Amino acid sequence: MRMFQRWQTTLPIACATSALLLAGCASEGGGGVQSQKLATITTRGKLVCGVDGKLPGFSFVGPDGTYRGLDVDVCRALAAALFGDPGKLEYRDLNSSERFVALSSGEVDVLSRNTTNTLSRDAAGGNGLSFGPTVFYDGQGVMAPISSGIRSLKDLAGKPICVETGTTTELNLADRMRELDVPYTPLKFQTGDQTYAAYLGGRCVAVTSDRSQLAGKRTNFPNPSEHALLPDVLSKEPLAPAVVNADPAWADAVRWVTYALMQAEELGITKANVAERVQLAKANPNQADLRRFLGVEGEFGKQLGLPADFVVKAVSTTGNYGEIFERNVGMGSPLKLERGLNRQWNKGGLIYSPPFR
Amino acid sequence: MAVASTDPGGKPAEPMPWWHNRRALPWLVQGVVGLVLLLLIAFLLGNLVRNLTAAGLLLTWRWLGQPAGFDVSESLLPFSPDLPYWRALLVGLVNTLRAVIAGLIGSTLLGTLVGMASFSSNALLRRLVRIYVEINRNIPLLLQLVFWYFVVFLSLPNGSAAPQLPGVVLAKSGLYLAGFGSAGWELPSLTNGVWHAPLQLSVEFAALLTGLIVHVSVFIAEVVRGGISSVPRGQWEAASSLGLHWWTTMRRIVLPQALRVIVPGLNSQYINLAKGTSLAIAVGYTDLYSVAETTLNQTGRAIEVYLILLTAYLAIDLGISALMNGLNHSVQVKER
């Protein structure tokens, strides 16, 4: 009887709590042909952007207290394209295991958080996301202290390796090590902070993540020059912004604002000269391509549910893709990463915007 | 005798309106509350299904049979990445239960000792115990775990420099204990700078266990202290007038009577401990929550994974409650 009474009170409470939690997980879905998300963002008056927040080069809080980084600039370009004002933007710091729940529950409108585009994340039967263009072509790497003498994956046999949980890197590592038949111990942590603290504390002989992330985190180490990346690249990691699959119109808006940054670089339109190029386009009816791209004529903006001059607003806020890259992760930044695969398609890279037509 | 009730004296009473009936009224209130709850749940579940359908995500459990693809750092059951998700979750559950059971035993022993020590005749010991309790009681569990792992355990040296006690070695790579191995009784041994022992605990498990035991034991100590103070002073005085030693008094006279007060209070501390194990991921120990998080991220089945988690923790907590209710029943005064 006592047991029965306990159930009488515990069970409904447990059910109600779980139901509340679950409903909270999925309170915002919906949407048909019209973009419900775009309407929500406009009504709210600001964009909510999910970022990592602790990754130098991609998204982190600078010494002046403002967010900066490549992922942050994608958010700023989106806010500028929507509102003409990058200030109408709110950031949410998300760790790798929170990010998809935050996105699918509608807590953030867009995830711009060094997230790898994969089949299972994209598929409707998987995470049900919709990825924008790849803004950074990366690969998974392994970092170890130079003094450890570890120079290849085989040197890691029987050793503990620190991994941040909820990442593709966890699976890639398991796959590669099984292929090489190298046994190892994965030590998983929930946040990057804990992962790198355990690595620096000497619990793991190596830490694995995207090569760009390792380079970014290394800039915060007490002695960055004592740690080196192994030459092995374990995987392809195309990092891209993501939105929920259920709202194709909003996904298109995110996709084409990002493409606009890439197209602007291809056309030589920069933060400094964009105003001048608009004046030239206005004065010159023969430059139809440029006039459409900059919103002087045509209705690209309207088709996306954005202002006609969204490209101008975005580029004048953040600059084009090349400027964003150089400023945040390129040679002009502490990370000093080569453009490599992230050059424009006509310069030997993979950055390629479909035509603005 | 259908509706009318009788008073204790047995005389027939005035027929009473049904809403004054002491038996019907609680049922009515329960019924209304239950109905409101059911409606709320129905509304929330309806909302959930509507949203899930709109997002193209309906509940399914087929993914449980798919290969997990990730590895776990320690497991009592054999595990490899080609085994299915359900197996990975089971490994996590076993690891959680291992932490819960070890934590329950450790925190009960330590908590009882600390609780008894606060009645010691030694004033220094009493004061030290108060300080120990106050410090630990006011620091959140997560902070304590992070402290034990990152500050204490990860600053230990490896190899021959690791602190050693007879039969126990505590190194950064783990805790090594003497025990029965393939060659009988074996002590921890060092080969090529790496320790080996019949009983090895990962430093992650050791840190989790230390944090849990230290944190929960002070709450248990407070419960024990409350229980002991509930025993009338006269019992102590009677025992001492018989010439019984402090320890004998405590063990034979005070504790058996205090248990009636202690056991119900222990129950909630035990449940706190069980729930506290889910912070294991902060110190890199692969418990159920950690495996579930990886699973969630790889499959995207947030709702299903959370349902599994809710059910598992509910089952563990109800299991503890049931055991403690049984124990409570056995320590209560038998009225004859």
Low-confidence stretches of chain B: none
Order of strands across the biggest sheet of chain B?
1-2-3-8
Give the N-to-C terminal Cα separation of chain A.
74 Å
Structural class of chain B: alpha+beta
SSE succession of chain B: HHHHEEEEEEEEHHHHH
Number of strands of chain A: 14
Mean residue pLDDT of chain B: 88
Shape of chain B: flat
**How would you characterize the largest beta sheet of chain A?**
6 strands, mixed
Proportion of beta-strand residues of chain B: 5-15%
Alpha carbon gyration radius of chain A = 23 Å
Characteristics:
heterodimer; A: 357 residues; alpha/beta; 14 helices; B: 336 residues; alpha+beta; 4-stranded antiparallel β-sheet; 60% helix; 8% strand
Structure description:
The complex is a heterodimer of chains A (357) and B (336). Chain A is of the alpha/beta class and 357 residues long. Helix content of chain A is 40%, strand content 16%. In chain A, β3 and β4 form a beta hairpin. The longest helix of chain A is centred in the N-terminal third of the chain and has 24 residues, at 2-25. With 336 residues, chain B is α+β, with helices and mostly antiparallel strands. Helix content of chain B is 60%, strand content 8%. Chain B contains 9 helices and 8 strands. Chain B has helices spanning 24-54, 85-117, 123-137, 141-152, 203-229, 233-241, 246-276, 288-299, 302-331; strands at 164-165, 168-171, 174-177, 179-181, 184-186, 189-191, 194-196, 199-202. Chain B has a 4-stranded antiparallel β-sheet with strand order 1-2-3-8. In chain B, strands 4-5 form a two-stranded antiparallel ribbon. In chain B, β6 (189-191) and β7 (194-196) form a beta hairpin. Chain B is flat and about 90 Å long. The two termini of chain B are 33 Å apart. The model of chain B has no long low-confidence stretch (mean pLDDT 88).
